[in-house]
Amino acid sequence: MPPTHQSSSATKVSTFFSATLLLWVISVFFQIPFNKRRDLLYIFAGGCFYQFANWVIRFSVSRDPLFVNTSVSLLHSAVTSVSVVFILLNQWSLTSFKSMFEHKELVEGTWPWAY
């Protein structure tokens, strides 16, 4: 069966996404040893954590790829949301409400390790 326009388009998107992700990973892993950005190791640790969660859900709950991807995506959203709320509450307790949303405070004070 010849490929349809939709499958060709999906393949192009998949290739573009994979290439972009590969360039980003190379960039991050270049920064760690050459620019001594040890704080970026958390990206690697996070990737390992979510791959482990993917494996646990796949082998203990369901082998359905849609279920596994949705579960890990929800886990990622929950962890990210809790982290952001924790950071904002922590900043609110350390600084005033007015100064915590200034750009300098957000970039340099609240989340200096954000990349």
Taken as a percent bin, the fraction of beta residues is: under 5%
Q: Rg, please?
A: 19 Å
Q: Note the total helix count.
A: 4
Indicate the structural class. Answer: mainly alpha
Count of the domains: 2
Distance between the termini: 45 Å
Average of per-residue pLDDT values: 85
Pick out the low-confidence regions.
none
What's the helix-strand series? Answer: HHHH
Helix content: over 70%
Largest sheet properties: none
Shape: extended
* SS elements, strand count: 0
Model description:
The model has no long low-confidence stretch (mean pLDDT 85). This protein is mainly α. α2 (41-60) packs across α3. The longest helix has 30 residues, at 5-34. Helices cover 77% and strands 0% of the residues. The protein contains four helices and no strands. The protein folds into two domains: 1-36; 38-115, no CATH class. The protein has helices at 5-34, 41-60, 65-94, 103-110. Keywords: Membrane, Transmembrane, Transmembrane helix. The chain crosses the membrane at residues 15-34, 41-61, 67-89.
Concise overview:
The chain has 115 residues and is mainly α. The chain contains four helices and no strands. It is extended and about 50 Å long.
Name its key features.
115 residues; transmembrane helix; 2 domains; extended; membrane; transmembrane; mainly alpha
